[in-house]
Structures are given as structure tokens and as C-alpha cells.
Design a protein that fits this description.
The structure is a single chain. With 199 residues, this protein is of the alpha/beta class. The chain folds into 2 domains: 94 residues, YaeB-like fold (2-Layer Sandwich); 92 residues, Rossmann fold, CATH 3.40.50.300. It contains 5 helices and 8 strands; from the N terminus they run βααβββαβββαβα. The strands form 3 sheets. The chain has a 4-stranded mixed sheet with strand order 1-4-3-2. The protein has a two-stranded parallel sheet with strand order 5-6. It has a two-stranded parallel ribbon with strand order 7-8.
């Protein structure tokens, strides 16, 4: 049986550290529980990476139990098989927030709403057609850019703590090359702070 080892890219490690800090700030010990479930997910990936369906790009997704996160990874050849070293590598490229089906705030619901309005839309990792609106979480959009970006429901970042909210908003805003629109609802100190910065 072919063995695999999982290697996490730096940006995945950065996301892990941020998630750990947030959970620990919410409840002491919860961050350690998150790390334990993450290690279990890594073990499942290393044991059977092909049990997870591949997207068009070849990237695969493994959900983390108990926590709304998913590990995105790719399986890559790495040298010849040998007894002491695994012959293939599963590279964790990103740790991304994931909302399960059935929630009113799912990306699936937003995609369906846009489709009903006559707007072509699909998830970021799916195959894109010309003129299609790409939908993603902020984490999934890291490293990418687009001419026009809409940040939907930015007020929902408030519950993450000031530092984490600012970091995520910065990531989202810097995806735009030409035009940026930020939508929010109600009173939002984060949005007031943004308004003061941009004048």
C-alpha cells in the first residue's frame, strides 16, 4: 500500500494559528480541542487521501469534525517509493471556514439566489465560465485577485475580535484590482472605522 505524508504550506499553518487563538479566547481548552480534531483530519488525509473528491483543479477537501473548517489539499508525487520514506505527499494548501448545508447563510444559498436573479455564479474552486461571478470565503480567496470585488455581510466579522476582524477584512479588500464594494447591515464599529480611514 502506498504511504503518504501530509505537508502543510505556511499559509495553512497561519490559518491554524489564527483559529487556535480565536477558539482559546472564546473558551480555555477549546483551541487545543480544535488542534486535536485537525490532527485527526490530517491523519485521515494521510491514510486515504483519495477518499476525498477532487475539484476541477485537482484540489481535495476534508472536513474537520466538530468545527466549521475544512482542509484543502493536493496529492503530489515526491520521489521513488522506499521503505523508510512515504513515496507521495499530500500538501495542505489552506484551512478554510466551511458552512454546512442547511444553514440559511450557506454559499449554496447565495449561489442559488444569484442564479434565480439571472446571474451566473459558481464556487471559487469550480470550473469558471466567462462572465461568471466567483463566490468564496475570505480564506479561500487568499492569493487571488479580481477586477471587481463585493464583500458581502462584512458586519459578520465583528464577532471574531478586533484584530482578527481587521486581518480578514484587509485580506478581502486587497483582492480587488479596480473596484471594491463592501456591504454591511446595522451598526458596525468595524465599518465605522473603515469609513473614517477612507474618508
Amino acid at each position: 500500500m502506498t504511504e503518504y505524508r501530509l505537508v502543510a504550506e505556511p499559509r495553512a499553518d497561519f490559518d491554524v494559528a489564527a483559529a487556535y487563538r480565536w477558539y482559546e479566547s472564546e473558551q480555555t481548552g477549546l483551541g487545543r480541542e480544535f488542534l486535536e480534531e485537525l490532527r485527526n483530519a490530517y491523519d485521515r488525509i494521510a491514510a486515504e487521501p483519495f477518499q476525498y473528491q477532487a475539484f476541477q483543479s485537482g484540489i481535495r477537501r476534508a472536513l474537520i469534525r466538530r468545527f466549521p473548517y475544512a482542509v484543502y489539499f493536493a496529492v503530489e508525487p515526491r520521489g521513488a517509493p522506499c521503505e523508510s520514506q512515504p513515496s507521495r505527499v499530500a500538501t495542505a494548501t489552506d484551512l478554510t471556514e466551511w458552512t454546512p448545508r442547511g444553514s440559511s447563510s450557506t454559499l449554496e444559498s447565495l449561489t442559488a439566489w444569484l442564479t434565480d436573479a439571472g446571474v451566473l455564479a459558481s464556487f471559487l474552486l469550480n470550473e469558471q465560465l466567462p462572465g461568471t461571478v466567483r463566490i468564496s470565503t475570505i480564506h479561500s480567496a487568499k492569493g487571488l485577485d479580481s477586477a471587481h470585488v463585493l464583500i458581502f455581510g462584512a458586519h459578520e466579522l465583528e464577532g471574531r475580535g478586533d484584530e482578527e476582524a481587521r486581518r480578514l477584512l484587509y485580506i478581502a479588500m486587497t483582492r480587488a484590482r479596480e473596484e471594491l464594494c463592501v456591504s454591511y447591515h446595522g451598526d458596525s464599529p468595524l465599518m465605522e472605522e473603515l469609513g473614517q480611514l477612507v474618508g
